[in-house]
Amino acid sequence: MNDTPLSARVHAPERLPAPQHPEAPVWRGATADDIDAVHALFAAAGLVDHPTYTVPREEIADHFTLPHIDPSRDTVLAFGADGELVAASSAILHPSRDTVAKVILEGTVHPDRRRRGIGTVALAWAYDRALQHLGSIPAPIPGEVAMYAEERTTDAAAIAERIGLSTGRWFTTMVRDLDDPVPERAAPAGTRLVPYAPERAMDVLAARNDAFRYHWGSLPSVEATWRAFVDGPYLRPDLSSLLVEGDRVVALCLASVNEDDWAALGEPNTYIDLIGVVRDRRGRGYAPTVIARTLGAARDAGLRKAVLDVDTASPTGALGLYERLGFAATDRSRVLTRHF
C-alpha cells in the first residue's frame, strides 16, 4: 500500500464553479423538491439507454435520505431557458472507506438535448467533485473514480474516456424463461433452505459482505444503504432464498420485483439483485441451491422471466453457472474507472 495520504496524491480543485453551457443557463445543486423532475429525466433517458429496465423513483429519493450523500453538493442539475430539467450529474463517495475510497459518477442528459456538449460539461463537473471527495481522505488508501455505462451509450463512454477513465470490466445482463423447467435442489446436509425474513437482515448483510469481499469493484455494504435496499418496496422476501447453517447465513439469493419494468421487458419478471456464498463454504453447490429455490418461487408467483447481471470475468465462474441454469446473455454494460 502507498504510505502517502490519498489527499496528498489527488489534485482536487478548491472551488467547484457551476458548469457553463449556452443551452443550459441555470445550474444548481439538487434538493428533495427535485425528485420527481429527476425521475422524469431518467425515465426519458432510459427509454433510449436501457429500454429493458427503469430507474425507480425510490432509488432517486434514497439520495436525499442516505447519510453519506449531500445532494446539494454532490449533484448538479441543468435547466434549459424554458425551466425544463435537461441534465443531471453526480459524484457519490461510497460510505465504506476502510480499504479504498471509491466515487461513483452518475448522470444523464435528456435525449432531446444530446450531442450539444451538455453532457461533457456536466460530467466534467462530477469528475472534479469526485476529486474533491478523494482529496478529503487523509488515509493512505487507494482512490478510485468509476462510472457505469450501457454498451449502447457510446457517447457517455467517450466523454468518460476524455476525462481519463478507461473500461475496466464488462457486465452481462442475462435472462431466463421461467416457463422452462426449474430443477429442484434439496438443502445440503446440515443446512436449511428458507425464504428471506426481515429479522435476518444483519445476518444476511454479514454473509453478503463476506461473499463479495474480493469481488472486482465491490466494497462492503453499510447498514444505512443495506436497510434502504432490504427494507425498500422492491425486495421480495418470498422470492429471496437463504441457506442457513445453525444461525449462520451461508448463501443468499435476493430478488426484487419492479412492475414498472414489466412493460419494458414484455413480461412479468423478477430481478435477482445478489447471489453469494460465504468464502469458507464455496464449492459445495450452495449457489445453485438458492438460485433454484428463487426461480421456482418466482415461477409459482406467476412471473415469467428472471433477470440478473454478471461480471463476465468473475473468477468464481458465475457466468458459466448461470448459463447452466438456463440464463442467456442479452445486453452488456461496462465500468469505466480511474485509480489513484
From TrEMBL:
Single GO term (MF): acyltransferase activity, transferring groups other than amino-acyl groups
Start and end residues of each N-acetyltransferase domain: 25-179, 191-340
Source organism, top-level taxon: Bacteria
InterPro entries in UniProt: Acyl_CoA_acyltransferase (IPR016181), Bact_Acetyltransf (IPR050832), GNAT_dom (IPR000182)
Keywords (A to Z) from UniProt: Acyltransferase, Transferase
Region: Disordered, residue numbers: 1-24
Record carries keyword Transferase: yes
Record-linked PROSITE patterns: GNAT
Record-linked PANTHER family: AMINOALKYLPHOSPHONATE N-ACETYLTRANSFERASE-RELATED, AMINOALKYLPHOSPHONATE N-ACETYLTRANSFERASE-RELATED-RELATED
Protein known as: GNAT family N-acetyltransferase
Organism: Microbacterium lushaniae
